[in-house]
Design brief:
The complex is a heterodimer of chains A (122) and B (108). With 122 residues, chain A is mainly beta. Helix content of chain A is 0%, strand content 50%. Chain A starts with a strand and ends with a strand. In chain B, strand 9 and strand 10 form a beta hairpin. The N and C termini of chain B lie far apart (35 Å). Classes of the chains: A mainly beta (122), B mainly beta (108).
Chain lengths: 122, 108
C-alpha cells in the first residue's frame, strides 16, 4: 500500500525558515518523480516544486524560486522541501504527491499525502 | 503559463442526476489533462488522466473527454459520495504545472 506521510509543518514568522519531510512507503521510491503541491486555506491547488526520480532535475514555481529547495533521499525513501524567506502568502497545507508513471514523467499525481500545515505569521 | 478555467464554479444537483464539468485551457494541452476530486479535509484523488483514462479504482460513472483546449468531466449519475470539489490539471507545457480553480458539486 502506497503511503506518503508529511511532517515538519508549523508556525513560523515572516522571513523565517522551515523544512518539510515526506516519508514514502509501499512503492519503489527512487523510480518515481515526486512533487509538492500546496493549498492555501479555502483556496485551490497550486503546484510548488517537482524532482525527478534520480534527484538530478528539479523544478519550481516562480512564486517560490530562489526561496524553496526540493530534494530527496532515495536510500531513506524521503522527500524534502526546505523553505526560506517565508511570506504570509506561503501559508498553506503542503501536500507531497507521487508521479503516476514509473521510470517516466507523468507529472500528474496518483497518490497524495494528507498534508502538512505551514502558517507564516508574526 | 497555461491558465485553466473551470466552469461553473458551483454546480447544484441532486443524487442520480448527471454532472457535466468544464475545463478550458488558454492554449492547447493536447490530451495531457487530469481531473482530481477533493472532499473536505481530504487530499485530492486522481480520477482521470490523459483526458479520458480512468485511474485505478475509479468507478465507471466518471468519464473524461476532450482535447486541445476544451475538456469535460462527466459523472453519469451522482452518488452521495460524489459531492466534492473537482480540479483539472495540465502537464503539457510546464513548468509550471497548473490547476484549474475548481468546480464545487453541491447537493441541491
Amino acid at each position: 500500500e502506497v503511503q506518503l506521510l508529511e511532517s515538519g509543518g508549523g508556525l513560523v514568522q515572516p522571513g523565517g525558515s522551515l523544512s518539510l519531510s515526506c516519508a514514502a512507503s509501499g512503492f519503489a521510491f527512487s523510480s518515481y518523480a515526486m512533487s509538492w503541491v500546496r493549498q492555501a486555506p479555502g483556496k485551490g491547488l497550486e503546484w510548488v516544486s517537482s524532482i525527478r526520480g534520480g534527484g538530478g532535475s528539479t523544478y519550481y514555481a516562480d512564486s517560490v524560486k530562489g526561496r524553496f529547495t526540493i530534494s530527496r533521499d532515495n536510500s531513506g525513501n524521503t522527500l524534502f522541501l526546505h523553505m526560506n524567506s517565508l511570506r504570509a502568502e506561503d501559508t498553506a497545507l503542503y501536500y507531497c504527491a507521487k508521479d503516476r508513471i514509473r521510470l517516466g514523467y507523468g507529472w500528474d499525481f496518483d497518490y497524495w499525502g494528507q498534508g502538512s500545515l505551514v502558517t507564516v505569521s508574526s | 503559463e497555461i491558465v485553466l478555467t473551470q466552469s461553473p464554479a458551483t454546480l447544484s444537483l441532486s443524487p442520480g442526476e448527471r454532472a457535466t464539468l468544464s475545463c478550458r485551457a488558454s492554449q492547447s494541452v493536447r490530451t495531457y489533462l487530469a481531473w482530481y476530486q477533493q472532499k473536505p479535509g481530504q487530499a485530492p484523488r486522481l480520477l482521470i488522466y490523459d483526458a479520458s483514462n480512468r485511474a485505478t479504482g475509479i468507478p465507471a460513472r466518471f468519464s473524461g473527454s476532450g482535447s486541445g483546449t476544451d475538456f469535460t468531466l462527466t459523472i453519469s449519475s451522482l452518488e452521495p459520495e460524489d459531492f466534492a470539489v473537482y480540479y483539472c490539471q495540465q502537464r503539457s507545457i510546464w513548468p509550471p504545472l497548473t490547476f484549474g480553480g475548481g468546480t464545487k458539486v453541491e447537493i441541491k
